[in-house]
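Before the break, one more example. Copy the sequence into your notebook; we will annotate it together after we see the structure.
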Amino acid sequence: MSQPPGGSPTGRAATPARPATAAGSSPRRPTDAVGASDRRHSRPASAAVYRRRRLVVLVGLLLVVGLVLAFLAWGWPGFARADAAADPEPTVTVTADPPTPTLEPAARTGTTAFATALPDTVLDLVLRSDSATDAWTAARALEAYQLVYADGDGADATTVTVVAGQWPTVAEAETAAQDLVTAAGEPTDTGDVEVAGEVAGTYAVTPGADGQATVTWRNGTAVLQATGPVDVVTDVYEAFPL
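Here is what the structure looks like once it is written out:
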C-alpha cells in the first residue's frame, strides 16, 4: 500500500507544530482574560494621604464656621456693627419711706367708736384740732366731727380739714353724700370706694378756688369730706383709713 508523501501512517493529517517558547518563560496571559487583575489600583493609600484629607476637611469646617460668625456679627443680628442698639439699662425704682409726722397730735374730744376710729395722723399731717360739729345735723347725721390736719405750725403749714359723719343707714348716708357733692360743684373725678375688694361707696373730687379741692366720699354709713390743696387732698383721701 502506498503512503502519500509526508502523510501519517494512520491516515490522519499531521498536527502543526506549536511555536517554541523561550526557555524558562511561562505562557503570556491575555490582559483581558477573566480574572485578570490590574495591579495599578491595588496599592493602599499611605498615611500621608489620610493626613492631607483630614487637613482639607478641617480647613473646610473652619471656613464654614468663620462665614457663619461673620454673618451673625455683620449681618443679622449684627452685634458687631457700630449702629447696633445696646441693651437698655434696667430701670431701678426707689420707693421712698412714708413721711413721718414731726408734731404731737391734739387731744381727742370724741369718745364714740366712730370718733376714735378717726386717725391722729394722715401721711405727714398731724391732727391739730378735733371738735364735734352740728353742720350735718339737718341731714340726719347721728354724729359729726371736724378735724384739722397740718404738717406744722403757722400760716405756711399745709392744712387739710376733714368733716366726718355717721348715719343710721346706708341709704341715708348715700343721700347725704350725693347732696354734699352737688353743693360742692361739678366734680372732675368720680369712682367707687372699695373695701376688701367690695364696693362700699363712691367718691368725687371737686376743684375749688386758689388751688384748693374737695374730696367727698362714702364708706358704708360714714360720709367724709376733705378740703385742702389740690395736690395734697387726694393723697389724704387715699390714705385715710375710713
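The chain has a mean pLDDT of 82. The beta strands are 121-122, 125-132, 143-150, 159-166, 189-195, 198-207, 212-219, 222-229. Try to locate both features in your own notes.
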